[in-house]
Structure to design on (159 residues):
């Protein structure tokens, strides 16, 4: 596979979830039978298959650094000549991963909260996948209101 459109990057997740396409189609039929919005699922499915060009070597490096060696949380990732130091993050952090997210899985997300320097960090897991974090009913009902509330004044700023 090449890094051309629809090449390496759009199929990189297939080994982790080889039945994902079949599951998506089964979900589509279930939604149609329940008269739920099949348009949303179709739109997301189109986007998933519309890969951004990502050269194979860069993808391998990304997987090695972020998934296999956990370099950001180990303090070993260098970007543009600077060592990335998550302990320097002093601003409030809201970290809400998806429990079913195989693109950014929980073992990659959880250690972040242990190394950030902020004393104001919130970690909460939602029972959705990667795309579900943005456009599922759970996102609309729980995630977006939580983000809205979290972006308001911090506890020590409230009067």
């Amino acid at each position: 596979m090449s890094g051309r459109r629809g090449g390496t990057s759009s199929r990189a997740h297939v080994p982790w979830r080889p039945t994902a396409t079949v599951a998506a189609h089964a979900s589509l039929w279930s939604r149609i039978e329940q008269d739920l919005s099949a348009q949303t699922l179709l739109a997301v499915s189109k986007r998933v298959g519309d890969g951004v060009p990502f050269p194979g070597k860069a993808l391998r490096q990304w997987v090695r650094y972020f998934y296999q060696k956990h370099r950001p949380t180990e303090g070993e990732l260098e970007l543009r000549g600077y060592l990335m130091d998550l302990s320097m993050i002093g601003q409030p952090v809201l970290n809400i991963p998806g429990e079913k997210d195989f693109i950014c899985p929980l073992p990659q997300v959880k250690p972040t909260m242990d190394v950030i320097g902020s004393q104001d960090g919130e970690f909460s897991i939602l029972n959705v996948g990667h795309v579900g974090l943005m456009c599922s009913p759970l996102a609309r009902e729980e995630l977006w209101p939580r983000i809205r509330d979290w972006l308001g004044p911090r506890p020590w700023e409230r009067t």
